[in-house]
User: Which sequence fits this backbone?
């Protein structure tokens, strides 16, 4: 079931003695709950973000912020991330390997690029450090009498279902940091975006907090697909099943073989409104389980690639 609405909260980051330290999250735990055992990781792609902050400096925020988001998404181990920012270079390398000047023995297999199911787009709406005296941060905001420096980063993400083009959610994320007067005079011009030194600064701390909040919100709103046992390959008397130890398939399990069904769509909107299951055409018993696949014997009836499998009471 798709989550409704988008939560928004403002995490506070405290900086003392010139060093950046994070407070605990106010609404969500930092550790995400584990995926269900039968969950299939969604495949997502992160695009270049639009920078609407008016920020002026050596950092290209439209590419740097998405790179940080990709890194944080990979840390969750809950999604598969495919590259779209550098896709022309990837496709170019594949095409080069198909050239007769390149050896064929170690070339990649063509037609194996993964499809993204969900696209993550973003807009950076604020990237400021009020109280900075170097003139490097440009902002229309002023705070009279501010002590030290205050950094604020705001981004807004949209998650798009590639199949339907539907925008699933708009996710706001914010990060802020306060620092001693030392940081108000700090010159950022020699600091690399996303490096260790960057994250020790107020603007770096605020960026990290915004990215972490964005990831938590993305995880809340990405739909999960559960694994279904299916025939991956079929011979006269045996089959290969599309899951093994990774989905807790066990030997001697007996499955009914069911042909693919069909979806029913609304004639007005085209939306899927129902599903009619296919007929049961046979049974298979699991004989051997491997890490990502299982072998089975056709006990009765028939089976072909793509058929669905349903556990029966005959399993022991």
Assistant:
């Amino acid at each position: 079931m798709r989550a409704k609405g988008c939560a928004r909260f403002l995490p506070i980051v405290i900086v003392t003695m010139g060093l950046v330290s994070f407070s605990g999250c106010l609404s969500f735990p930092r550790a995400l709950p584990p995926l269900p055992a039968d969950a299939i990781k969604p495949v997502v792609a992160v695009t270049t973000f639009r920078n609407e902050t008016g920020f002026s400096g050596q950092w290209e925020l439209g590419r740097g912020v998405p790179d940080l988001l990709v890194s944080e998404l990979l840390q969750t181990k809950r999604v598969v991330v495919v590259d779209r920012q550098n896709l022309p270079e990837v496709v170019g390398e594949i095409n080069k390997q198909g050239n007769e000047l390149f050896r064929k023995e170690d070339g990649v297999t063509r037609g194996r690029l993964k499809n993204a199911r969900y696209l993550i787009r973003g807009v950076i709406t604020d990237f400021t450090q009020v109280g900075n005296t170097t003139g490097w941060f440009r902002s229309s905001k002023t705070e009279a009498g501010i002590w030290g420096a205050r950094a604020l980063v705001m981004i807004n993400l949209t998650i798009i279902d590639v199949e339907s083009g539907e925008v699933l959610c708009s996710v706001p994320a914010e990060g802020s940091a306060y620092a001693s007067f030392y940081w108000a005079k700090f010159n950022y011009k020699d600091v690399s975006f996303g490096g260790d030194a960057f994250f020790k600064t107020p603007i770096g701390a605020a960026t990290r907090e915004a990215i972490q909040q964005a990831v938590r919100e993305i995880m809340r709103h990405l739909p999960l697909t559960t694994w279904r046992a299916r025939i991956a390959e079929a011979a006269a008397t045996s089959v290969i099943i599309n899951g093994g130890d990774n989905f807790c398939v066990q030997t001697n399990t007996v499955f009914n073989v069911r042909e693919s069904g069909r979806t029913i769509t609304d004639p007005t909107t085209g939306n899927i409104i129902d599903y009619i299951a296919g007929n049961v055409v046979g049974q298979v018993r699991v004989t051997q389980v491997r890490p990502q696949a299982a072998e089975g014997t056709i006990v009765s009836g028939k089976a072909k690639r793509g058929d669905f499998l349903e556990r029966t009471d005959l399993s022991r």
